[in-house]
Amino acid sequence: MPPVKKRTRSYDSAKIRTAVLAQFGNVREAVAGLTAEQLALPTALGGWTVRELAAHLTMAVESVSRTIELSAQPSDQNPTQQPDRQPSPAPVLPLLDWPFATADLAQDISQDVKAIAASASPDELFERTAERIAALLPGTPDDRLLTTRLGVMRLGDFLVTRTVELTVHTDDLNRAVAGLDVPYDRQALAACTRLLADALAVKAPGASTEVRIPPYAVVQCVEGPRHTRGTPPNVVETDPLTWIRLATGRTTWREALDTAHVSASGERADLGELLPLMG
Fold it and tell me: Are residue 121 and residue 236 in the same domain, yes or no?
């Protein structure tokens, strides 16, 4: 875990909630139109088929419903009841720790994905997930503490991580099925880009290099002389989808440079050794 922490960016709760539901809806509509042959296509994710990738997308949202349900307080069922005051679970996982903590989950998630994909059709999985999130999310406050696979998180923070899951895997889905072109909700894409950019600043603290991902994020990182005026001496610039692919290992630094999807200038502008941030 990176030892240096930076102040966590604030996110608009209403926009994040809307973004999660909107991107889930985008994926649901696209998957509903896939043929059996398309669902059987391979993806770039460890042997998963498109059908299994679709199942994982439902899991990403269903995890919100499940953890809300598991964290329900006695007063949720009986508003007049005043439960004994209980200590908050600790420690609470900070949002910026989440990207670095996900690598250890890959094997367990893969097993779950295959089991869930085999249990029901994609349409059934999406319908069930949509009904549960619609029933449980609106009445649950952002400060509710949820026990996730990685530890205790605030609901508001956990929802930001869902924008990463949905956006990253929407890109995986689009690349697996030619011509699918699932749209990206703007707020989901923005939150995903910003969280992964901030994670880079945590992994490589400093202010010698400016990383620009227009129109959503600018962060400073990498140890060295601090830039204070004019054009920074070390600048990296790329688009949001390329950044997300770099941060999650879908493409390499060299590939992005060679295809001109990244521009980098300055002796401290080589981020190759820092990427990916998530496995």
Answer: no
Chain mean position to CA 104: 16
Q: Containing domain of residue 206, as a range?
A: 190-274
pLDDT in tens, the chain (279 residues): 444 455 679 999 999 999 999 999 999 999 999 999 999 999 999 899 999 999 999 999 999 999 999 998 554 545 454 444 455 455 999 999 999 999 888 788 888 999 999 999 999 999 999 999 999 999 999 999 999 999 999 999 999 999 999 999 999 999 999 999 999 999 999 999 999 999 999 999 999 999 999 999 999 999 987 766 667 789 999 999 999 999 999 999 999 999 999 999 999 999 999 999 997
Closest CA to 247 of 175, 181, 171: 171
Q: How many domains, in total, are found in the chain? A: 2
Decide: residue 112, CB within 10 A, 0-12 exposed, 13-18 middle, 19+ buried: middle
Of 122, 150, 184, which marks where a domain is finished? 184
Q: Which two tokens stand for residue 207?
A: 């202010």
State which of 184, 207, 239 marks the end of a domain. 184
User: What is the 8-class DSSP label of residue 227?
Assistant: P
Task: Check: CB of residue 8 under 8 Å from CB of residue 19.
Answer: no
If asked whether residues 101 and 150 sit together in one domain, one would say yes
Residue 39 is assigned to a structural domain of this protein:
yes
